[in-house]
Structure formats: C-alpha cells, structure tokens
C-alpha cells in the first residue's frame, strides 16, 4: 500500500483520503521527471558488463546514487569514497586541491585488492582533482 501511495504522490495524485500527512510530504517533494534519466544506469551496465570489473567506487555524495545500482547489475562490489570521518573503522585518506580550497576522500582499508579493476562514479568533473584523488586512493 505504501508503495502505491508513493507512486501516486509522484504522479501528483491526491492522497488526502489515505493519510493527510502523506499529502503534506508529497507536496514538499520536488519531482523532476527527467532526472535522472531512466537509461543512465543501463548505459553504464552495457558498457562495463563482462569487462571483469571487480568494484564500483562511488564518490560522495552523488556517486552513491548510481554506483550501487551499477555495481549490483554487473556483479561487482560497491566501495564508498567518503568525506573525512564519515566511515567507521580504519581508512586510507587522500587529500586533493579543489578550485576553492582543499578536501579529502577516505576509503575503508581492505576495500580493494591489488589488481582489481574499478569503475569510479561521480556526478561531474570540473578540475579533475576529486577523480585524481580517487584514483590515487584506489591505486
């Protein structure tokens, strides 16, 4: 029932009779029907399936949207690359320069084995600093 109600909310149908709280939540959510493209994950899967990819590394935060779905579809593990002090346990860190300062990515120790092939997923590349840090971290 909750899934049907959520689908109705996404399509703009009234939920008031079911539960007025649901209508309030629905009214507060901005629906962008063309984002992300339904084909986005499929395009990555078609490209990387069968290439021996062992892991998909998603850069926080938008790499967490597509990364797990791609990893699951190609039979790979997902590795979150996070901002400092977000991951529990022992981590590796890699600092990098942004156009407006410095930042850092962290990854769990043991998340990847030497020689494993990895796809890195992020939302955009501006300076390449984050991607370079991810590659160094995974290397």
From TrEMBL:
Span of domain Phosphoribosyltransferase: 53-138
Chain ranges passing through the membrane: 53-76
Keywords in alphabetical order: Cytoplasm, Glycosyltransferase, Membrane, Purine salvage, Transferase, Transmembrane, Transmembrane helix
InterPro entries reported in the protein's UniProt record: Adenine_PRTase, PRTase-like, PRTase_dom
Pfam family, one: Pribosyltran
Self-association and partners: Homodimer.
Catalytic activity: AMP + diphosphate = 5-phospho-alpha-D-ribose 1-diphosphate + adenine
Leader sequence segment: none
Enzyme Commission number(s) of this protein: 2.4.2.7
Predominant place of localization: cytoplasm
Family, similarity comment: Belongs to the purine/pyrimidine phosphoribosyltransferase family.
Cell compartments where the protein resides: Cytoplasm
GO CC terms: cytosol
Protein species of origin: Miscanthus lutarioriparius
Pathway assigned to this chain's UniProt record: Purine metabolism; AMP biosynthesis via salvage pathway; AMP from adenine: step 1/1
GO terms, molecular function: adenine phosphoribosyltransferase activity
Broad EC category: transferase
Protein name: adenine phosphoribosyltransferase
CDD domains noted in UniProt: PRTases_typeI
Domain of life (superkingdom): Eukaryota
